[in-house]
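hi! just following up on the protien thing from before. the input was this:
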Amino acid sequence: MSPIVPSLPPHLVQLGFDYVLAVEAEDDAQAARLAPEVEQLPGLMPGFAELIVFPVTALSDDTDPCADSFVLDEVGVIYLMAIREWATHAPAPAAPRIAHTIAHFVGQILADATTDAVPTLQALHDEQVARARAVVENAVALHH
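and the predicted 3d structure came back as:
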């Protein structure tokens, strides 16, 4: 894990996926319903982007680093920095565009076909929400 990746609580992971899925599916009513909450949390979309992008682009401890892995890591960092800057300077108008950008990344990099962004996002949703819940459960168990 990168120190730049915030640990998002399960409800914010859920909100991020719900918003990205609504925007990508062109469900304007759902996106509009979620927009005020997303806009009140200007760091949500950049943090959510890090949750999706960083595991794919970051240097892995599992393999020997090579020139390509360093390049991929840097591209990921630049991509995430651009999203963070975008959200910092125009948080409300940036949210739907960041959501589209995340969905595009998923469609181009993680999905079997570019048309499979929504099913891939739904699968990532299940995995990431479960992971966020496990982190919370582990933290609670440590405090008892």
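Residues 121 and 127 are 10 Å apart (CA to CA).
The mean pLDDT is 86.
cheers
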